[in-house]
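User: Fold this, then the next.

Assistant: Folding the first:
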Amino acid sequence: MPAVQPNTEQMTRFAKDAHDGPIVMINLLKFKDKAEYPADAPEAKEGLTGEEAYNRYGEGLVELGNDPQIGLKPLYTGSGQGYLIGGGEEWDRVLVVHYPSRQHMLRMMRDPRYQKAHRHREAGLKYQELIETHPMG
């Protein structure tokens, strides 16, 4: 089911999972045609696309990548170009991000810098799939 945020059950399961090693999150992103900011937000009058708003979210996270308490590291970003095998949703972007541990990711989500950037994500993202993976080997 399309979503922008994890539900309570998903977030609880993620936060309490016993895996304490690195995680790699695979983001499959679908953007809104036009960004949707609150009417009183300065960006509301800019006429941004959803992708442009989401890019501002990404720019806001750059500082967090340099913080060892968070340690996020983008591994790959690319535009969706269709399926060779299978089929389903046509995704606008694929983003793969490494975190040293789930605690690092949870720390990021609570960080005021993340919260400040997060409004751009909400304005631009129509929905996504977020897949947690554990590196093998």
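Now the next one, as you asked:
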Amino acid sequence: MADQRREDDEQHPPGFGRLGTKVLELAENVVYAGIALFLVVTALVLLVLAGKTTWALVTDLSETPVLELLDVLLLVFIVVELLFAVRTTVEKRELIAEPFLLVGIIASIKEIVVLSVEAAGTVGTAGFADRIVEIGVLGVLVLLLGITSLLLRRKEREPDEGENAPADPETRDRS
């Protein structure tokens, strides 16, 4: 009986009944559903914009519509990754860092692409050096975010530490 009471205490904070917890959980789900709805609408609007930009390529074969299309498509990737992050958060009931790292990587790559095209038009000016520095900083950011994502994946593959962790085979053989 004491074990059951302890489990209830861990699931529901003191002074906060089951009804309060259920209300907060419902409110959280409504907020997440709203965020997901706005992200879906944003992705659809961006896809329509990408279609419009693609149609503009028929009449204008310059680099401007191509760059705009790439920019919009990378924004779609960002929105879809954010939608995935919301879905994962709702399913697992915990905040997962990796989708946000991927959003950071995609956003940084998007800026690198835009800055590279802009830098090509400013060769020989003071603005060129600034853009090159920005591209370098963004490149380092992409590298760091990628390493962080790799380390997170490696950490997820490791067995859990603590009482419920599986015994180490070397330790088990020595006993």
